[in-house]
Write a structure and sequence with these properties.
The protein has 456 residues and is mostly helical. The protein is 60% helix and 1% strand. α4 packs antiparallel against α6, α6 packs across α13 and α13 runs antiparallel to α16. It is globular.
Length: 456
């Protein structure tokens, strides 16, 4: 444990030699947070669907508000766990490590939480499905253009892998190295630290994959600098970094509870049932004083505020429980010898969470409006790929006039005309996956002739 505790974090930034800026009072990890907040990729999350169609008169969460809330919970978890590590392992920690766990772990976890969804395309999972399906359905025409590893990336397109690309990519005509985040923050978002050919749905850290072939070398640098445990070399697979478990827990806590609150605001779940389930959840966790909670609830008259109060109490209880589980099993998390998320470990002993999850699957994630937007999003993304991918893969002198015009619509930043077919396709995917829901829908309408006319 001593070696892992002292060497699992790094000030090093992607492909930049570490040089402390003494004129800046912020730590390197605080600067990560600021860089993410001010990035255009983060800002675009405000117009990407979380679960429900983006709001009309009733406000519900989008990817940006979700990410900010996950970062808040992650900061609390990082602070709690940092205190535990600093006190429990004080004799094993270097002076620098004591300072890191006491004052900076929470910055790393908060930063990673902030950008954990930054690679998700428009329309969420249906956007991912559309990208993967496009390549699967067009395999006879396209596969010969790629190596087996490259093709595996495309038919298994994954927002988690795309996040590493968004954050580290040397994008054409832009500054090298993406956001130049520390390796600590980058390692903390790698839920699935393997290449696409290493996927295995039965193993938690290989359920999906975490980096494309284009970022394989970068990911190896991240792993090396943060002491990630290599599981296999071919395909390349690592054990999860210990910080990932905290980022994942913060995300799980937020979306399970907040999706539930959104469903209440939209009238999908009745007020009394929502209140009863959240109260039952708090009782299951067994941390809060239930008499005080009931007294406070009695003082609140607005039904939405009652739910908001219980949502806050539920998130607090789950955060404290997550900290306790990480503390109890800390050596297993650091050595990668566990195959269950923190949230699942909580759920195993909490019937209320199982009830909330079952209700969410039946009534929220399969709600007609949610399914409609998923269907629409899938079709929009699929058609955009159909418009750009075949032309960009065809030799310039073999393109039809319409294909030439399609390529002209591709911004120069994303047009890798003289590169490999894999790089060309990734350029198109960078463009399309980076779109907001509204932009993708508007472009779809214009190229399909549903809307015609100049638009600036």
């Amino acid at each position: 444990m001593e070696n892992l505790l002292n060497n699992c974090y790094s000030h090093q930034r992607d492909e930049l030699p570490f040089k402390s800026d003494v004129s800046d009072p912020r730590t390197e990890f605080q600067r990560d947070f600021d860089r993410i907040i001010f990035s255009s990729a983060f800002r675009r999350l405000q117009n990407k669907t979380q679960v429900f169609p983006l709001p009309g008169s009733v406000f519900v969460h989008n990817r940006l508000t979700h990410s900010l809330e996950v970062a808040s919970v992650g900061r609390s978890l990082g602070s709690l766990v940092g205190y535990v590590i600093e006190n429990k392992y004080k004799k094993e920690l270097s002076k620098e490590s004591i300072n890191f766990y006491k004052y900076n772990l929470y910055n790393v976890i908060a930063s990673a939480c902030l950008c954990h969804d930054i690679g998700n395309p428009a329309f969420g999972h249906s956007g991912e499905d559309a990208i993967a399906s496009f390549f699967k359905k067009n395999e006879p025409q396209l596969k010969l253009n790629f190596t087996n590893e490259e093709w595996s990336d495309l038919i298994n397109f994954e927002g988690n892998a795309n996040a590493i690309r968004v954050l580290t990519q040397h994008q054409k005509d832009k500054s090298n190295g993406g956001l130049k985040l520390t390796y600590s923050t980058l390692s903390a978002i790698a839920k699935y630290p393997c290449e696409s050919s290493g996927k295995n749905p039965k193993i938690l850290h290989r359920k999906k994959f975490g980096f494309f072939q284009s970022e394989k070398h970068t990911f190896e640098s991240i792993a090396l600098n943060t002491q990630m445990v290599k599981e296999e070399s071919n395909p390349l697979i690592y054990k999860r970094h210990p910080f990932v478990w905290l980022v994942e827990a913060a995300d799980d806590i937020c979306y399970n509870i907040i999706d539930f609150e959104d469903a209440h605001r939209l009238g999908i779940i009745e007020n009394t049932k929502c209140i009863d389930l959240l109260k039952y959840l708090i009782e299951c966790i067994g941390i809060d004083d239930h008499n005080k909670i009931n007294t406070q609830l009695g003082k609140i008259k607005d039904k939405n505020e009652k739910v908001a109060y219980l949502r806050a109490k539920s998130i607090n209880a789950l955060t404290l429980k997550a900290k306790s589980i990480f503390e109890d099993k800390i050596e297993l998390f650091f050595t990668g010898k566990i195959n269950a998320s923190i949230f699942d470990l909580i759920k195993n002993d909490c019937d209320a969470l199982i009830q909330i999850k079952n209700f969410s699957v039946e009534h929220i994630y399969n709600n007609r409006h949610v399914v409609e937007i998923e269907n629409a999003g899938y079709n929009v993304m699929y058609e955009l790929l159909s418009h750009f991918i075949p032309p960009i893969l065809r030799q310039e002198n073999q393109r039809t006039e319409s294909e030439k015009k399609a390529v002209k619509l591709l911004p120069l930043t994303f047009n890798y005309e003289n590169e490999s077919d894999y790089t060309k396709v990734l350029g198109v995917l960078d463009y399309i996956s980076g779109m907001t829901d509204n932009y993708a829908t508007d472009l779809y309408k214009r190229i399909k002739g549903i809307e015609i006319g100049m638009k600036f």
